[in-house]
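Sequence in, structure out.
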Amino acid sequence: MKKLLVLAFLVGLAMNPGIASAQFHGAFNVGFPMPTGDFADIAKPGFSGGAELYYSLPQLPNLQLGGRAAYNWFDLEDDQPEGSYSIIELTPSARYMFRDYSDTYNVFNVFLQVGAGAYRWNIDLDDADGDDGFDFGFNVGVGASGRFTDRWSFYIQPQFHWVSGEDENLTYFPLNIGIMF
């Protein structure tokens, strides 16, 4: 009986016109993260790559809900031990497009994005044991996108990331450039 109720619920959910016509949007990006605050004392500017997946319902076409996964890599400063610092971010996010993304006549768009989630960091030292951890953080960014076909567009987005650590907070500011589809 329980399986039948779950199946009925899923069928009803799939038949809901709002859910069935949801618009999915994906993106791939590369970025150039700049460490800020105390993090800038130990790490040089780095490189990042990521992917994003968002959806919007027809009732709220300007609001997109989804998430982002990205890998950030930094070399350590010259006065630090030889090594690198990496951060993997998994952050559910919300994006507000100031113009309706589904409207193919909108060639240019501006958006605001906020997210919060998990940040996995790792210090890899060449001549010594490194360290790693898993902390909570949030990010906020603004971006601009330009459409070059009905389905494809490019975007540029600076974001500020704040990661809460045991001893101190970690902050960095990547400039992301990507393709949305």
